[in-house]
Amino acid sequence: FPMAAAKTGSKAAFSLDSYHVSEELGFILPEPLEELPPYYQPWMDITLRIPELVHSHELRSHINKMPLLSSKFLQKHRELRLAHLALSMMTMGYVWQEGENDTVEVLPCSLAVPCWEVSQRLGLPPILTHADGVLANWRKKDPEGPFNMENLELLVRLPGGDSVQGFFLVTLLVELAGVPAVRSIPTVINGVKCGDSEAVARALEDISQSVQDMTDAIKLMQGSHSHIDYNLNCMWILQWKDNPCMPKGLIYEGVQTEPLEYSGGSAAQSSLLHCFDELLGIKHEAKNGDFLTRMRSYMPPAHKQLIQDISLQPSLRNFVQQQANEQLNQAFQVCVTKLLAFRSYHINVVSRFITVPAARARQLRNQSRDLEEAMISRAPSALEERGTGGSGIMTFLKSVRDQTKIPMIGSCNTKVA
């Protein structure tokens, strides 16, 4: 895909046209394909059976028998995205089929080589990412129906049933809720360039509403998977970077002889919040900033480029301070406050569905209860302290939230509902 050059000139209008951002769906892949060309049927036959094959402990044996197929017959972007989804899902299943107690050191050539090749063509890493599991892993049950929980399902399912499906679909709806905010970013940037305070204020109000809608969407987590299978769901998005279960990483057979390390799928790989941070001038302390910057390498290259180009635009915060316009100042304050509220609520969600269940798993493991033993032995202890991307999860999230407060201008105590 064509990359947009950084638009830093004072007269050049900033546009989303070159960044693979959909007018209706934002960073979500529009109309993902459900089938690959017939040549690749061996991949899809296994991919669509992943939950049952993991349950029967047969996924690895099926992948070991899989033929080595060339990726050269994949031509279109959506074909590549479905192939990456299928291959990376199989990769996660191969590694984590038996939980932490029986991981592997080598990914077989028949999976490793095409996964690597497709990843290189897309500019994505050879592991399941947010762009795969969320942005390219959906379909409408009724093509003419609404884009909501009742009318959505995953193309490729993970073990864990409806609770896991809910986890990914709610995340998809959060992305959808952020679309109006993304569409408003060029209005803010161009308004700053030409000194149009009113246009900037209106666009910031639209962004605030969109971020509020994102918070409302993430609240659907409460109902979608209140009984989420922590063990299975979280295991499948774990990384083999900084993971004590896989201290050597993973060798991609037929690609290179040295093991490779990659982070797992994470909300930090969503382009939405990165765009908002750059627009609002939110800077994160070195350790968090380094992690977030690394997560951009797990995004489609055009989306990563958009974030970079937003960062090169004239400072919105400086513009707000220079204008001394009450409506503009208020709009900026509310926008930051809404983003702060979203991050605070996200911390609650992570605590409820990851941190608390992890502590419970640790407690049961320590008590060695016989009835729980089989399940707890598979509980991902790496998540008790660290997130799926490899970050110290609660410390990281709280620090990122606290850094969000810094761009607030003056002593305005803006209150939002």
Annotation keywords:
mainly alpha, 417 residues, Methane Monooxygenase Hydroxylase, Chain G, domain 1, two-stranded antiparallel sheet, 18 helices, 4 strands, oxidoreductase
CATH topology: Methane Monooxygenase Hydroxylase, Chain G, domain 1
Structural class: mainly alpha
Largest sheet: 2 strands, parallel
Q: Which second-level CATH architecture applies? A: Up-down Bundle
Tally of structural domains: 1
Strand content: under 5%
Shape estimate: elongated
Which series of helices and strands comes N to C?
HHHHEHHEEHHHHHEHHHHHHH
* Through-space gap between termini: 41 Å
Gyration radius (Cα, Å) is: 22 Å
* Annotation field: number of helices: 18
Total DSSP E strands? 4
Strand order of the largest sheet: 1-4
Tell me, rounded to a whole number, the average pLDDT.
Answer: 83
Can you describe what's shown?
This protein has 417 residues and is mainly alpha-helical. It has one domain: Methane Monooxygenase Hydroxylase, Chain G, domain 1. It contains 18 helices and 4 strands. Strands 1-4 form a two-stranded parallel ribbon. It is elongated and about 65 Å long. The two termini are 41 Å apart. The N terminus and C terminus are likely disordered. This is Indoleamine 2,3-dioxygenase 1. Keywords: Dioxygenase, Heme, Immunity, Iron, Metal-binding, Oxidoreductase, Tryptophan catabolism. One of its GO terms (molecular function) is heme binding. One of its GO terms (cellular component) is cytoplasm. Belongs to the indoleamine 2,3-dioxygenase family.
